[in-house]
Amino acid sequence: MELLWVENHPQFARFARPFLAGYSVTVVPSLAAARSAVGKTHFDVVLVDFDLDDGKGAELVRELAARVGRPLIVATSSHADGNAALLDAGADAFCAKLEFARIPGLLQSLTRPHGTA
To answer: Please, what sign has the CA dihedral across residues 62, 66, 68, 69?
Structure first.
C-alpha cells in the first residue's frame, strides 16, 4: 500500500515512522510537494497535517476529496481544531499526533474490504 504523508516536522516524522512499518511511505513537508507527488504517483492513503509552511492541509484535502478514484485521507493534526477542519474538508478519519500509536489499526480498519474480519 502506498502512503503519502504530508508532515512538515521532520523530528515527528522520524519518531512516528516506525508506526507505518509495512507500508511504502513517502514523506513530504508542504502542499506544493504533496501536489507534485500526487501528480506523479497513485497513493492509496494520504496522511495530512493541518498547519503546513505553505498553507493549510484542508486545501489539499478538498482537492483530493474531489478526485475520481481518490485516496483515503487521514487527518493527522496535533490539535482538535485542525483535525476538525480537515474532516470538514473531506478527510475520512483522523489520528491526532499524540495518539499516533493507533495509526496502524486505523489504517487497517479503513482499508479492510467491507464484510471481512
So the answer is: positive
Please name the residue that has the C-alpha cell 515512522: 17
Domain 2-111: CATH superfamily, name plus number? Response regulator (3.40.50.2300)
Q: How far is CA 67 from CA 15, 18, 38, 64, 71, in A?
A: 31, 30, 11, 5, 8
Alpha-carbon torsion angle 62, 83, 77, 68, nearest 10: -30
* Overall pTM surpassing 0.85 (yes/no): yes
Nearest in space to 21 (alpha carbons), one of 111, 107, 109, 83? 107
Query: 108 burial class (0-12, 13-18, 19+ CB within 10 angstroms)?
Result: exposed
Q: What's the confidence (pLDDT) of residue 113? A: 64
Domain definitions of the chain by residue range: 2-111
